[in-house]
Amino acid sequence: MLELIVISTLNGVLYGMLLFLMASGLTVIFSMLGVLNFAHASFYMLGAFFGFQISRWVGFWPALLIAPLLAGAIGAAVERYGLRRVHKNGHVAELLFTFGLAFAIEEIVQIIWGKSPVDFRVPPLLDFPAFTIFSTNYPAFKMFMLLVSVAIFLGLLLALKKTRIGLIVQAALTHPHMVGHLGHNVGRIFMLVFGVGTALAAVAGVIAGPALVTQSNMAGLLGPILFVVVVVGGLGSLPGAFIASLLIGLLQTFAVSMNASLAGLLGPLSPDLAQSWLSDIWNVTIAQIAPIMPYLLLVLVLIFRPMGLLGTRDT
């Protein structure tokens, strides 16, 4: 029992921090620009494929720097030449634009790299077990992912709350004309924020690519749960996204490891009910419903606290 708790906790924290690393950029974009970017997971995928390609040419560590810069530059161009023009037509137009952009990026990735998974490997420097617990080896690369996620969380908080740049960015969202009169280029600020947000998603792609499967449908596999994290944590709240990521990571990891069911807890159904549809539900295990638990949590949060755990916006 102790082994199950310790290992599930470690796996849950690692998975939760990976979710935060992906959701942090989406949270920054929404909190600064008010745009819920449906193509955010596609930039995560671009980061993984850029990292794979660049690592084949010059190695993993240069790729960790270059791939997010490339994805961030593409994101900044998308905001400058696409999203900014669409913005005047309202939020529905923005959602449709980013929704279409997600499909376009996926098709481009399939044209260049194909539909099959690519061989994106862990760098040799981190290809060893960091420690062993209960005869289970934990890779050093996963510890590296955890450290990067925590560093980005702290760095973003400090940048947004304690620096002049962060204050200007936040002021540009609520009082753009005043910031413009003070001599700041508001359009450039928004472009840079969108670029930074997409670059953060690409960082997640580069470090998650070797640990997970790098393939053309990876955005679709992890994209929906990012919005669960952002909504549960509170739209635009970085600490909320951090807490929600850990909560969902632990919830799903513990659920996967549990085989309990109503039949195990309360015993088998009576012969009269054993042949009914109720028998299927009676024998379903917690592990079988683990994939839908984050979405059940989303429904409950929207019912009882629509602004999220630490959010201040209802919409």
Automatic annotation (TrEMBL):
<dbReference type="InterPro" id="IPR052157">
    <property type="entry name" value="BCAA_transport_permease"/>
</dbReference>
<feature type="transmembrane region" description="Helical">
    <location>
        <begin position="245"/>
        <end position="269"/>
    </location>
</feature>
<keyword id="KW-0472">Membrane</keyword>
<keyword id="KW-1003">Cell membrane</keyword>
<feature type="transmembrane region" description="Helical">
    <location>
        <begin position="218"/>
        <end position="238"/>
    </location>
</feature>
<dbReference type="GO" id="GO:0006865">
    <property type="term" value="P:amino acid transport"/>
</dbReference>
<dbReference type="GO" id="GO:0022857">
    <property type="term" value="F:transmembrane transporter activity"/>
</dbReference>
<feature type="transmembrane region" description="Helical">
    <location>
        <begin position="189"/>
        <end position="212"/>
    </location>
</feature>
<feature type="transmembrane region" description="Helical">
    <location>
        <begin position="59"/>
        <end position="83"/>
    </location>
</feature>
<dbReference type="InterPro" id="IPR001851">
    <property type="entry name" value="ABC_transp_permease"/>
</dbReference>
<feature type="transmembrane region" description="Helical">
    <location>
        <begin position="12"/>
        <end position="39"/>
    </location>
</feature>
<keyword id="KW-0812">Transmembrane</keyword>
<comment type="similarity">
    <text>Belongs to the binding-protein-dependent transport system permease family. LivHM subfamily.</text>
</comment>
<protein>
    <submittedName>
        <fullName>Branched-chain amino acid transport system permease protein</fullName>
    </submittedName>
</protein>
<dbReference type="GO" id="GO:0005886">
    <property type="term" value="C:plasma membrane"/>
</dbReference>
<feature type="transmembrane region" description="Helical">
    <location>
        <begin position="95"/>
        <end position="113"/>
    </location>
</feature>
<dbReference type="Pfam" id="PF02653">
    <property type="entry name" value="BPD_transp_2"/>
</dbReference>
<keyword id="KW-0029">Amino-acid transport</keyword>
<keyword id="KW-0813">Transport</keyword>
<keyword id="KW-1133">Transmembrane helix</keyword>
<feature type="transmembrane region" description="Helical">
    <location>
        <begin position="281"/>
        <end position="304"/>
    </location>
</feature>
<feature type="transmembrane region" description="Helical">
    <location>
        <begin position="140"/>
        <end position="160"/>
    </location>
</feature>
